[in-house]
Design a protein that fits this description.
By secondary structure, the protein is of the alpha/beta class. Helices cover 46% and strands 15% of the residues. The chain is globular and about 50 Å long.
């Protein structure tokens, strides 16, 4: 059977009071999305640079209690902001609070202001990718040592499109890859990831392919994403008003596609 299509929404924790974010999480779960993400930054990425903003992992702990069905996670956590063993323990704890609904999204990091104002070394793209390579097995080892252990094998989502390093680390460690770009770009990245899976001894079908729909609806881009292998489609929403209208269109499209696949036995 083909992997089912899923829909995620990234509720960007910027330009909103937490009460508005909490309402949006509840609305997203009620609308039927599969995954609710936030992001791991300390300042808004667009709009007013010093606008309202909240921290990622504290929020995920709250979401774990406030939701009952959706998976939750960061799209994505920066590897440079927390010691890998601490991050593993934080993820294990949120995994338990949520009864096994956490995804660990992780990437090399890129937003220099976060590093500068919070006192983390920014380094270079190469050094940050090196930190990611080192962190992934350390996180896995810490999960094995923790008592109690995670409730399940916590799915790891790696975000980023670097073909020489990021996609190789994805093939080595991840359950989900999140990429950016148009369908043709995603298709090329999928091919490279498949090649790294062969090198690393992984079945490429073990890795779910995720991408952003940007501000496009399913009638515009849904079939193209499906054709190149994307199975988790995520929409980004910003505060203060988290409008889920387009998200509901994607949920309806997801249901139609999954019904058709089931009926066809594919």
């Amino acid at each position: 059977m083909a992997r089912p299509v899923r829909v995620g929404v990234q509720l960007q924790p910027q330009h909103a009071d937490y009460a508005e974010i909490r309402r949006a999480v509840a609305e997203a779960e009620e609308a039927g999305v599969d995954v609710v993400f936030n992001w791991d930054h300390f300042f808004p990425l667009y709009g007013e640079a010093d606008g309202k903003h909240f921290e990622c992992w504290t929020m995920l702990g709250a979401w774990a209690e406030a939701t009952s069905r959706v998976e939750i996670g960061a799209l994505v956590t920066s590897v440079g902001y927390r010691n890998p063993e601490l991050l593993a323990d934080m993820a294990r704890t949120v995994d338990h609070i949520s009864d096994g609904r956490l995804l660990l999204g992780i990437g090399a990091g890129w937003f220099e202001r976060d590093y500068a104002e919070y006192g983390y070394p920014f380094g270079t793209p190469g050094s940050r990718l090196g930190d990611l390579e080192e962190a992934l097995p350390r996180i896995e080892r810490r999960w094995e040592a923790l008592n109690p252990a995670p409730t399940r094998k916590i799915p790891v989502l790696v975000g980023g499109g670097g073909e020489k390093k990021t996609l190789r680390y994805t093939a080595r460690h991840a359950d989900i890859w999140h990429g950016f770009g148009d369908p043709d770009t995603l298709a090329r990245k999928h091919t490279v990831l498949d090649e790294w899976c062969v090198t690393e001894g992984r079945d490429p079908d073990e890795i779910e392919r995720s991408a952003s729909a940007a501000d496009k609806g399913p009638d515009e881009i849904g079939e193209a994403l499906l054709r190149v292998g994307t199975r988790l489609v995520t929409l980004g929403l910003t505060g203060p008003r988290y409008d889920l209208g387009l998200t509901r269109d994607w949920v309806a499209w997801r249901d139609d596609v999954n019904r058709q696949q089931a009926a066809a036995g594919v």
